[in-house]
Amino acid sequence: MNLRVESVFDNRKEIKKVTELYEGSFPQNERIPMKLLLWKAKQDFVDFLVIYDNDVFVGFTYLITREDLTYVLYIAIDNKIRSKGYGSLALAQIKEKYPDNRIILNIEVIDETASNYEQRVTRRKFYTRNGYEGSSYSYRDRWGLYEVMIHGGKVNAEEFHALLKRFAGALLFSVFKPQITPSTEL
Q1: CATH of the domain spanning 3-185
Q2: Checking DSSP bridges between strand 133-140 and strand 145-151, what pairing results, if any?
């Protein structure tokens, strides 16, 4: 495998593939409109990256950074090549791109009553195998409750909040109303 990444803006022909993968990988309630993602990705603190193995489309990542904190808002690997190590390689590339940063991401909380309980457990194990651990925080927005996982250190609610506000802007931030609280409180 020879993984490489390019900005989605450097390879506009892949936007259709990225959009299809995005829509197929995330439930509608978790998706920010693609036009808004593309517009926000023009900011210098956002990386919207297409992943390739040589010249074969593998997937994408959408990363937001503030100071030494990088948030993986989205990461998706093409269904046709999942379970072949690409997800782990993509996470390793994020660590290489931001070697001095703490990296955070959200996953659905483990809920035995959820219809996708097994998928949630498998996803958490995947991130744990790749060096992520529970941060002791939960993230809640208008659409769901998520566990915040981290690689490379600790995070506090205020700095995660500040990162989200920088990305969203004051108006959008007030619309999606994120809450970051200690896990035991939810």
Answers
A1: 3.40.630.30
A2: antiparallel
